[in-house]
Each structure stands twice: as structure tokens, then as C-alpha cells.
Write a structure and sequence with these properties.
415 residues, alpha/beta, Rossmann fold, Arc Repressor Mutant, subunit A, 2 domains, 17 strands, 26% helix, 20% strand
Length: 415
Amino acid sequence: MADEEPKVRWLFEDEPTNGTRPKPLGLWSGAEHGEGALPARDWLLGTTFCRGFLSSIVAEGGTGKSALRMAQALALATGRPLTGEKVFRQTRVLYISLEDDATELRRRLLAALMHHNVSYESIRDWLFLASPGDDWNAREPMSEYTLAYSTRRGEIKVGEFLTKLNSAIFHYDFGLVIIDPFIKLHALNENSNAEIDFLCRVLSTLAMQYHVAIDLPHHTSKLTDLNGGSRSNRARGGSAFRDAVRLLYTLSAMTADEATELNVSDEDRRHLVRLDPGKLNITVPATKADWFRLVSVKLGNGDAIHPNGDEVQTVASWDAPDFWAGLTISLANQILDVLDAGLPDGRRYSTAHNIGDDTRRAWRIVLDFAPDLSEAQAKMVINEWLKRKIVESRDYDDPTQRKPQKGLFVLRRPG
């Protein structure tokens, strides 16, 4: 007796087998829609917010992340590039503060409005605010003001906040929703990747379902060394948050070294912060970074008891001085001419730190021709030329010492 033809056995009893069954996993052929143009990603503000994706800004407390996000929200709501970033289209924005009450949130908004010369009327139908914590009551269930929480049994539950958020996005057609800060959005174990991943998947689904950008400002880990390590690893809690957020940026105060490089005073540097793309794991030079100045705005709301009123922080974009712009090819070649000729007694200029004779220090020649530069910037010019093989340091016979020394030689000219 011939063997019977094997039959396909489906995992589920009710799976149709008459050729009309749905494609497993919702798969499709790679050739489908091949002729049609794919829609571009729906960017809203520079490369900071994009519809359908989660984003975040990670920073220490007091660095200005909330002030920056308020200014960026205002930029989108007005359609004006208030933060120096490209506004692709005017967009309706919802800013939810889980940290400040309504009055403080209004102060933050007013400071941004005053500094950027924006009227209340111009944002009437574009920028909306919410402070859900204003009505919080300790006797109410945990689900009321959190998007997700874990029970005593370790079960993860979705809170009622999700329903309210879902309704707000649906009825107002927001393009961007900022929920500040992320840590107040849930009552989960922030160090549990499984729990945080669950929360982020809920938010990602919401972002894709409504084609809305969802932003989640977050704090840094207190154990982080701000002067070292990858900036994208600075977010507190497990790595699941960093992995889930597609557009991650870090905000950090200007360091003393950066201030030296940019020739900024110690007092001014305390008001300057830099924005870096954390997902890319790179740190661009200080002159090319995106910088913002923290601005204190007087609200003019003084009274008999508090005559000075309030001063509230907002941000303004700040262009780092680019000292390279003033170092023209002609000026660079004049410096190189001197370096190439060496000293009158036959000695060469040097990059060494321990030479006793200041006349041999190469960076001093840079300052002779570009006196507006700082010592640190002059040294950076020489170091950059070394890296680009414009000059090199090599042994030569020092006629005064009658022994080999290290000196600078010009290899080529810029231009």
C-alpha cells in the first residue's frame, strides 16, 4: 500500500486550509509596491522629532532639558525656527508635565514666549499644556496617573493614563506629545529591561497608530562620569529605554576644556549647554556642536511682597565662535613660512611641552599672526596640522646643542 501524502497540520484548529488563510506574520513579497515611491519619514523639527517614532533628551537635573523642550515645542507650534532647527511644518503640540504643577508650567511657557517674542494668541490652537499631577491624591489607585505599573505579584498592568493620553491624541490630532519626565510616567522597576521594554512598546504602538511623535525627556544616571564614556549610555535605568528610543540626544553643560577651546570665560560657560546625538555614539568638536544659552527671563509679575517677581529659565540657540574661519589660507601659509624657515640660529620650532626656550614653541608663531586666538586655540591649530600631515615633528641636527633634537618641518601647504 502506497504511503499517503503527508498533510499539513496547523497549530490552530480553526486555521483555514482552503487557500484563503491569512499570510502568517502579515508577510509580503519584496516585489510588492516596488514601482511606487515610498513616503519620506515625517520629520517635524530638524532631526529631533519625527512622527511615528519615540525620542528623548537625556540630561542631568538643572541642565535645561525642560527649558529646551518648551522652546522646541514653541518652535513647532509657531512654525518658527526659534531654536535654530529647521521647522518642516507648523504642528500641534501637547506638553505634559509630570513634575511641575500648572502654575509653574505657565511660568516656563511665559518665559519662552517673552524671550522669543511670541504672543499667546499665535499659539492658541497649536500649543496645549497638561499637568495631570495637579489632582493627584495618594488614596487614588496607582493606575490613575501612570501609564504602566507593576503589582505586588510582579504583574505589569497598563494604567488609566494610557486611555486619557489615547483620547487626547485622537481628539486633538497632535503631531508631537512631550511627556516630561519619563521616570514619572510609570511605576515600574526602571532597572528591569523587560518592564521598561514593555512600556516603550506600548508607547511605540501609540506613536505608530496615530502617526505622532512622542518625546520622553529623561534623567542621567547619578553614577555617570560626565567627562567620559559614550554619551548614549548616560540614561538612568536599564538599557531597554535607550534601545527603544529612535531619536536620542544628550544635553550637557560646557566643560572647562570646551570653554578653553572656544575662548569662553568661566562665568559664561556656566550658562552654555551642548546637544549631542546620543544614538550615534559620537562627539563632534566643540566648534561644530549644537549649543544653547540658558537665559533667565524676568516675568514682571512682582507684587508688594515680592517686588522683583519671578525669573524663569528658557533657552536660545548659541553659535560657537569658529576660530578656524579667521585662519585664511593666506594667513596659514604665512605661519607655515616662519615654521619652515626655523629660527635664525638653525634651530627648529617644537611642539614639545618640556622645552625650556619659549622662542621654540610653535604655537607662539600662530599667535604672532592671529593674536585674537587663545593659547589653547593656537595649540589646537598646530595639533590639527600635525594630524593632517601639513607639518611633522622629526629629528634634526641642532647646531647649537650639537646633538639630534625634535623639530617641526612643513610637508605641504593647505589649499
